[in-house]
Design goal:
2 copies of one chain form a homodimer.
Chain A (H helix, E strand, L loop, with lengths): L5 H18 L3 H17 L1 H17 L4 H7 L3 H16 L7 E6 L5 E8 L2 E6 L4 H12 L3 E5 L5 H17 L7 E3 L6 H7 L7 E5 L2 H10 L12 E5 L5 H13 L8 E7 H8 L2 H4 L4 E4 L1 H6 L3 E2 L2 H5 L6 E7 L2 H11 L4 E5 L3 H10 L4 E6 L6 H4 L7 E2 L7 E2 L6 E12 L2
Parallel strand pairs in A: 3-4, 3-6, 4-5, 7-8, 7-12, 8-11, 9-10, 9-11, 12-13
Antiparallel strand pairs in A: 1-2, 2-16, 14-15
Helix pairs in contact in A: 2-5, 2-7, 3-7, 5-6
Family (chains A, B): Belongs to the gamma-glutamyl phosphate reductase family.
Subcellular location (chains A, B): Cytoplasm
Function (chains A, B): Catalyzes the NADPH-dependent reduction of L-glutamate 5-phosphate into L-glutamate 5-semialdehyde and phosphate. The product spontaneously undergoes cyclization to form 1-pyrroline-5-carboxylate.
Chain lengths: 415, 415
């Protein structure tokens, strides 16, 4: 028997108990809770922004670069967006106790596969405080107790947000203990959390590769890997080149720091010259790392093996000319992380083959990879984007936060 | 980089490659393969039975008890049952490339959540050679490469069965490499297998608690825990006592060694005397371990805390008198393993509450827990019965052996 940190152990125990109560609430009751949380975020806006200011000052004093400070920052608009996300979750159908399948055996026994909450879901995340509210909302609506472990850089902001959520729940007559928050930035508590098998049902890490790898390596609790996205755009010989350029610009430049941004461009050799020659002008500010064939058309840094593997998360694009669709698919197979992949083509067979053969959470024909996102998909936010195949794949919304239970109703059937 | 056993590493590499080809076969092509496998099992029956005889002799020489030798034994009838199971799998709908959900975003982008094979599925199992055929059939039909690691006690039988499957596949023009078989009983190969993250997509252990715990403790590859079943029957005050007795006898005596057999009987105090007094006569041959209140009505061994936790897998039953439904649910909560639980009642509210509140893969009202089984549920066999909540819960059939992929079809949509 491991000796867990006493506070964490008792918090999780209470969380598990209260999660059972939460799991039996009706959709209406849960929505009333979420509504009260919106009101609490509203009335505590000043406190929250003040707490966030402390985090920002601390980050700036520590010399954190401004793009990261920005990820941490809250303002009235961002709080409004959080409340909007809560309203979207309220509007979603209750995911609990519905049946995808009901059937009757030859002996008359009726079986239903019903959705039920997982129990306790743990989220380990970095920086952005809006994850605090998103993760709570989706976990709560799906009837799960949620245990949050944010980053120490956002500790004040998260503490204020969780405080508001707790008061909102209380106002709705729901135990605030359904949302646990590790208000302690000792790293060993993450490890304790990862070892709480049987106490926590699922842990979702949201953050950089270092965090994800640490979690996957050390977890005894089931986990879902999220987020690492080495995403490709393949421009087919029969692709519309101006459409391809718009999709490329959107994928690379609109928000380069996110996991569904493009990292590598693959171009069919037949359209390579026409397409690649335009890159320097169209992708202003983007550094290109190109293969040898790319260098025939424009002057670029020479791409190395490391470039094909890299998730730049920055204004850098790797470019490779391929001889056909199979070579493009092979490249994606070898270097992709199974996140989001796109083709631009007007050829029906190429579109079909790309969709069937590329092994990723989301595969796009003639559209931007930037859509791989719980909000964009209409899930009212997301718990992360799974890049594994087991349990969930792609943006995790309410459906990915429930499990199932077979219910059998009989009249004395035996075998 | 770990250095895997060379043979295993290259087998898994080939398996992954061939699994991709398998994943794109049509349902018809896969069914033709399964049909050829049936024919091969037919024509190689003598070789298989001879190989099995060697295993049986080895087991008897080693002094293995007869009930375990029986689990290992094959005969013409059991081979017929295997072929029957293959025919059932042929009759099932192809689980690959169907969509549970297709919708269109406001910008016109159409999304479909499509089913796709997991890739490579590993099964680590003990004793029964029919698992070899079942696991292959379900894995194959769902488009997955399957890697089998059976027990050393069944090595000859498994080798002969896999040989027949390989020849059947070859006759159908399908690469036999889609079924990998670890023909080597060194224990360290199991550990190697558990560490092949990115090469094997899912590992399912089927066997005793020791095996399951070893797998869960050591795996880096995602796993599904299966099989440990401490199952309860609760006889409510408003239950039909003769129905309850039939369900109890079926659950305890029909096949005590399986995971869906009953281990503990909980009886409401109002019917305890009437029900418990009949136990000795009705459950002939079953040893009873009872609580203090049970001892008021019949003479039994005193039940200890260990009895409530025990999966006897034998003709032993723990008996406890409870004061009401909540106490029964609390007992199940504390000692159950989340496998199969049953209530016998004619009270509507009690039936509802039991189904909602008991946290298990399968919850029965007025029926035997013995039905929790892929075959009985109509899944054409099973890959194991998941007792975890993540990915799959309950009997794992074709639906649990696929993952999903979002397909987006657009006309140039960007964010």
């Amino acid at each position: 028997m491991k000796s867990y940190d006493q506070n964490l152990a008792s918090m999780v125990q209470e969380l598990k108990k209260e999660a059972k109560v939460l799991g039996s609430l009706t959709g209406e009751e849960k929505n009333r809770g979420l509504q009260r949380v919106i009101e609490a975020l509203e009335s505590e806006e000043e406190t929250i922004l003040q707490a966030n200011k402390e985090d920002l000052e601390k980050a700036r004093r520590a010399g954190v670069r401004e793009s990261l400070v920005d990820r941490l920052a809250l303002d009235s608009d961002r709080l409004t967006a959080m409340k909007e996300a809560l309203r979207e979750v309220i509007a979603l159908k209750d995911p609990v106790w519905s049946s995808g399948k009901t059937w009757t055996l030859e002996n008359g026994l009726t079986l239903s596969k019903m959705t039920v909450p997982l129990g306790v879901v743990g989220i380990i995340y970095e920086s952005r405080p809006n994850v605090t509210v998103d993760a709570f909302a989706l976990g709560f609506k799906s009837g799960n107790g949620v245990l949050l472990r944010g980053s120490s850089s956002a500790l004040n902001s998260n503490r204020a947000l969780v405080g508001a959520i707790h008061r909102g729940l209380k106002a709705a007559g729901i135990s605030p203990k359904v949302l646990g928050f590790i208000d302690d930035d000792r790293r060993e508590l993450v490890l304790e959390m990862l070892h709480m098998k049987g106490k926590i049902d699922l842990i979702i890490p949201r953050g950089g590769k270092g965090l994800i790898d640490f979690v996957v390596e050390n977890a005894k609790v089931p986990t879902v890997e999220t987020g690492v996205g080495n995403c490709h755009l393949y421009v087919d010989a029969e692709g519309d080149l101006s459409m391809a350029m718009e999709i490329l610009k959107n994928g690379k430049m609109q928000r380069p720091g996110v996991c569904n941004a493009l990292e590598t461009l693959l171009v069919h050799e037949a359209v390579a010259e026409a397409f690649i020659k335009k890159l320097s002008q169209e992708l202003e500010g983007v550094t290109l790392h190109g293969c040898e064939l790319t260098e025939k058309y424009i002057s670029v840094e020479k791409a190395t093996e490391a470039d094909w593997k890299e998730e730049f998360l920055d204004l850098i694009l790797a470019v490779r000319v391929v001889k056909d669709l199979p070579e493009a698919i092979e490249h994606i197979d070898q270097y992709g992380t199974g996140h989001s992949e796109a083709i631009v083509t007007n050829n029906y067979q190429h579109a079909q083959a790309f969709q069937r053969k590329v092994d990723a959470a989301a595969v796009y024909v003639n559209a931007s990879t930037r859509f791989t996102d719980g909000g964009a998909f209409g899930f009212g936010g997301e718990m992360g984007i799974s890049t594994q195949k087991v349990h969930a794949r792609g943006p995790m919304g309410l459906e990915e936060l429930v499990t199932t239970k077979y219910i059998a109703r009989g009249e004395g059937q035996i075998r």
